[in-house]
């Protein structure tokens, strides 16, 4: 059997140069050609290996390494050809060629299956087109994102500055929670957004109101239909009316159902509607009062005149007839006062209106009341306020304020007859009205408040909470008529019910006189 030593035994062999007869030109031709070819072969694998190492995104990196090994082996065969020109190392040359053959066959076997996959790779032109299409798509997506951001910013601006209170309610396993609200919603409830978002209705409303709101949330969630309703709640200036709209939102990716709601203050609209109805009703009452006063004034005047004459003609010693005449005269005068107040009730439009300082006038009215009631155990206080000009008849506004003061004093006296330890206090203040450009003359008393049975009719003529014979029931209607004549209104509300400070709050809400009003008055 042939051994390795015999394979690599060179003693009986002649070098390749013998075959070339040691001709220098042939020798150098072979040496230079094989040397350059070998160096070129060995330089190519270096490039392939550098590419394979530095480009980790190559599709077939192992193919580069296999080709580098194949080319190295090929280059080694050329260098062995140079060696065998002088040394007959044909065994070593054959071994190098065998290794080269093995690597070549392995490379060929590996390359042929790659052919379809290599042909399937996109060409440079296809890649350029794909990159161009991708750039266009990226540009379109960026433009769409820019438009979406702009739209989102505009929508957020609308929501943030909308006067209506907007909110989104999320349904969680524990119940309904406010997911997001706008600033109007925060101002409505007087709380920060951080305190509202994540909280439920029971954190903002009392138990009955929260239960009612949760019922509406549940009904909207079950029916998947919009809902709207209106409710009223007591406030400092009377009843506050709210209109609520609720709509279901499409289900989000997190699986939690959501509802979108809006809350709008419609108190002013309801007040205007009520005022229209009340104005028509009061006009009818006013016309009736005017007719009654006109028809009754003449016989009353005649009764008074003849009673005066009969009283003057009576002998002072005849006491019984004189007393009867005094009663007739007193009652006729009381009837005359009642008729005069009925005439005042119909005077809504002030004649000879002028611009004056309401602060000074209210102060004067309070001072008159303080002097008149100086001996009574009553605390009448006026809170300081900045000057505020209104337009109307000063005497009528003073009359309205005095009517309100008298009603507050009578309510306190009536309560103290039943509760001697009840506080006796009337506080008068001037504040900004509920709408811009208005002022509110507010009178707070501790008279226990308006009885529940009279609340809806307390501003109507001949309605009074006093004992029979103690009042005419025209003081508040006259004050309301004076306020309407000045373009304002009279409102009321009970406060601190069930507490020692319980009482009523009456507010004369009047429009402020603007610069154009004062200029017109000066020109006149």
Task: Please tell me about this protein's structure.
Helix 3 (24-54) runs antiparallel to helix 4 (61-83), helix 12 (358-372) packs across helix 13 and helix 13 (394-418) packs antiparallel against helix 14 (475-485). 19% of the residues are buried. 56% of the residues lie in helices and 17% in strands. The strands form 3 sheets. The chain has a 5-stranded antiparallel β-sheet with strand order 2-1-5-4-3, with helices on both faces. The N and C termini lie far apart (143 Å). By secondary structure, the protein is an alpha+beta fold.
Task: Give the SSE layout.
Blueprint: H1 4-7, H2 16-19, H3 24-54, H4 61-83, H5 90-120, H6 124-161, E1 165-172, E2 175-181, H7 183-189, H8 193-196, H9 207-223, E3 227-235, E4 238-248, E5 258-265, H10 267-313, H11 319-345, E6 354-357, H12 358-372, E7 379-382, E8 389-392, H13 394-418, E9 425-432, E10 438-445, H14 475-485, E11 489-495, E12 503-511, H15 515-523
Parallel strand pairs: 7-9
Antiparallel strand pairs: 1-2, 1-5, 3-4, 4-5, 6-8, 9-10, 10-12, 11-12
Helix pairs in contact: 3-4, 4-5, 10-11, 12-13, 13-14
